[in-house]
Amino acid sequence: MSAGGEPPLLRVEDLRVEFPTEDGVVHAVDGITYQVLPGRTLGIVGESGSGKTVSSLTTLGLTRRQGARVWGRILFEGQDLVTLPEDRLRAIRGNDIAMIFQDPLSSLHPLYRVGAQLIEAVRAHRDVSKSRARERAIELLGLVGIPDPARRVDEYPHEFSGGMRQRAMIAMALANEPKLLIADEPTTALDVTVQAQILALMERLQRELGMAIVIITHDLGVVAEMADDIAVMYAGRIVETAPAARLFAAPEHPYTWGLLKSIPRLDGERAEDLVPIPGTPPSLIARPPGCHFHPRCPYAQPDHARIDPALEPVPDEPSQHVACLLQADVRRRLWRQLQAGDTPEQALSAAGLPGAPV
Amino acid sequence: MIRYIIRRLLWGVLLLIVVAALMFLFFRILPTGNPALLRAGRDPQPKLVKEIEVVLGLNKSLPVQFWDYMKEVFLHFKFGYSYYSQEEVRSLIAERLPATLSLTLGAAVLWIVGGLGVGVISALRRHTLADRFAMGGALLAISAPEFWLGLVLLFLFASDIGKLKILPGAGSYVGLTSDPWKWFTSLIMPWIVLASGAAAVFARLMRSSLSEAMKEDHIRTARAKGLPERSVVRQGVRSAINPIVTLFGLEAGALLGGAILVEYVFDIPGIGELNYKAIQQSDFPVTQGTVLLASMFIILANILVDVAYAYLDPRVRYS
After folding, report:
1. Fewer CB within 10 Å: N-end or C-end of chain B?
2. Nearest-neighbour CA in chain B from A81: distance (Å)
3. Looking at the domain assignment, is residue B149 inside a domain?
4. Residue B265 and residue B189: Cα distance in Å, rounded?
5. What is the DSSP letter of B167?
């Protein structure tokens, strides 16, 4: 989130999204703010149910039909997408902002040829003939690295492999050369080797087409590869945001630590134990009071169940923001201990905090 | 695909042979009375009865009768002669086929268009007043037997006995070629009665099928592409239609069964009515002929469904 002079392409301000249900109001997104600069990549990281998908679907107005209540602003090139009428929003969808989804098999219509689905994406926003759109479809399939596109354009999604399907989804998203691509868990349903290919493809296309990317994932490895900036979401809020390199080098939030410690590393000096984050993400209907993470936080103090932390800049590091009630120096000591291989309990006592978590 | 269709047709013929054999057995085993006696008039001479038995071939042994019968049906497409009127069954059926085709094809159009149309509207406007009204009506239509619904409509709208005399009543059927307008108006109530049950089943099925289809990920993709909502719904209907096509074959059978009742209630001179009378009179050749014809239609409808399925879903390929 550099504070450069360039105006952001997308700026989300204090976005809140709620779904009224029979069981109560689901607070899916609870006041998040972020921005994406042209040609840059923002990674949004969090567990399932952290609100990351809902926030991006809301950007395209795709939560409207589900009865979502939306507050805040989503500014895209100066227009507020929250209040934009449906027909004008439709002209932006798939045109200026495109989106790809987690499971490419279920995201493609099984009964239509891949080519037909590409052609309709082109023709939804361009007044071109079917044959011209078909040429464009073949060109797009070639662009995303599908071999023999002139033949594969007439095949059905089930005749494609998983990686090919996601390539086809990306081709569809690129049909109208969007300024912003939102990729929601684009590699989660794919084999590891194919994941790397898809990420490399997205990076190449970003360079060639100059589009901005918002990549949503639970996988820090993916954002490490792709993102310029990272926002970590928990229970509908952004709990930490920083440039990617900074976030991996000096994470400030205990949840981010948990995420980092729960992924295997091959470059560690010794076989580090993986430390899973204890507990499960909270219900978005009845969230814990105070800091929403406190029931799962090994370092939580008694008053953290009362006080709601705000997302604030880290001392000496204006590009990094964190929403944590621990003192900055305490946090840094804890992270040093964790990096040295301490368990959270050892780190706690080394940092001089009362032992038992709340 | 061609091989598949040919194989299915051959199986269909085999099935018809089995149906014919079963029919033959039932009529010989069940106590239906001696057809020769029925035809010989009051207090017949035993000699006359014997002569008639010879004419009808009833004096031959059962296996020989069976063989003769099957040979006639499957090699010469002859169903024999009515025990009652001596008319050829084939011409009896041919005479009455137009009325039944008018009734069933018209009802099928109403069934599919009406059922699917109501289902789509209900699915897209779930939990609205229109949806509740449509689904309540569908439940009523499923529950109401044809003969009851037919009588109620006649009581309400028939030009002779109705409260609102707006439509021609029972026995008003005329052929399409003799008076198209009268043909059409006389069939309105029968069409509605015959189609209502199947249409209601289709409407309810389409509603749930389309509601599910509209939750699919690829519908979200279609919206994310910026397609107009009409196109999005069309894609949903396209996937929702497949499970319903399977049911078409089953409901086609129910439609023919319903035609018997509807033709009886509205006094339409069709195959169903012919069959009904033949059963009452133990007129075996006529019953056999009409039942075989109905079986053939149902078998063909089911083959059509399977072929349509392969066409509708590229993931299904028969070999």
Report:
1. C
2. 14
3. yes
4. 11
5. B
User: Structure tokens of A151?
Assistant: 């033949």
- The reply to whether B166 falls in a domain is yes
Closest residue, chain B, to A158 (C-alpha): B315
Residue B107's nearest CA partner among B219, B46, B197, B34 is B197
Is the pTM of the predicted complex or chain greater than 0.95? no
- Residue for token digits 């997302």? A311
Cα–Cα distance for residue pair B46/A188, rounded to 1 Å:
89
As given in the structure block, the two tokens for residue B228 are 């107009």
> Across the A/B interface, how many CB contacts are shorter than 8 Å?
73
Residues of chain B with pLDDT under 50: none
| Domain count for chain B | 1
Q: Which amino acid is at B50?
A: K
Query: Whole-angstrom Cα distance, residue B114 to residue B196?
Result: 9
Tell me, what CATH number does B130's domain have? Answer: 1.10.3720
Q: What is the pLDDT of residue A155?
A: 94
The residue in chain B having the minimum alpha-carbon distance to the alpha carbon of residue A124 is: B227
Any domain includes B235: yes
**Predicted-complex ipTM score:** 0.85
Q: Which residues of B touch A111 (CB under 8 A)?
A: 238-239, 242, 312-314
**Structural domain range at position B249:** 96-271
- Please identify which residue in the block is written with the tokens 């009808």: B56
Burial status of residue B319 (CB atoms within 10 A of its CB: 0-12, 13-18, 19 or more):
exposed
Tell me, yes or no, whether B163 lies in a domain: yes
With a cut of 50, which residues of chain A have pLDDT below it? Answer: 1-3, 357-358
pLDDT of residue B208: 93
Domain ranges of chain A: 106-175, 260-350
Distance between CA atoms of A161 and A175, rounded to whole angstroms?
21
From B222, B231, B238, residue closest to A111, measured CB to CB: B238
By the 10 Å C-beta count (0-12 exposed, 13-18 middle, 19+ buried), A198 is classed as: buried
